[in-house]
Specification:
Length: about 140
């Protein structure tokens, strides 16, 4: 469901919405946000959030994503760095590298690239897992 992410709760209650980029907007460059940022447009560059980045179903992003939590419902090509987790929803397509403690891939989603699992402690070893795209249907 496109609005499922609204029902998800983040453990840090200080999170707040700081921006939306909706259809019809095209951005080439870098964007930084102190809170949750939702993108449903075309972006080429780096998106950074201290909280959550949400790529909606209409998103087409190429570059780098950096946030505590990254949720992909559209298309992304590049490098994702999440302090906590990355979620690829049913219609999401991710091509590239994912660096996170946790990667969730819903049925129907497509992920082609490498996943680098970040350990809880800095003394642990990073595990790289190559993943090939899963077909839909």
């Amino acid at each position: 469901m496109p609005w499922d992410w609204l029902e998800r709760k983040i453990t840090d209650s200080s999170d707040e919405w700081t921006g939306f980029l909706e259809r019809g907007i095209r951005v080439v460059g870098d964007i930084e946000s102190s809170g949750t940022l939702r993108v449903n447009s075309h972006v080429q560059g780096t998106l950074k959030s201290q909280s959550m980045l949400i790529l909606g179903d209409e998103a087409d992003v190429e570059g780098q994503l950096e946030a505590r939590v990254v949720i992909v419902g559209g298309k992304f090509k590049g490098i994702v760095r999440a302090l906590d987790r990355v979620e690829i929803h049913e219609k999401g397509v991710v091509s590239g590298e994912v660096h996170a403690k946790c990667l969730l891939i819903e049925a129907g989603a497509v992920f082609e690239g490498t996943c680098h699992m970040i350990p809880e402690s800095s003394n642990g070893r990073i595990v790289a897992i190559p993943i090939r795209a899963a077909g839909r249907g």
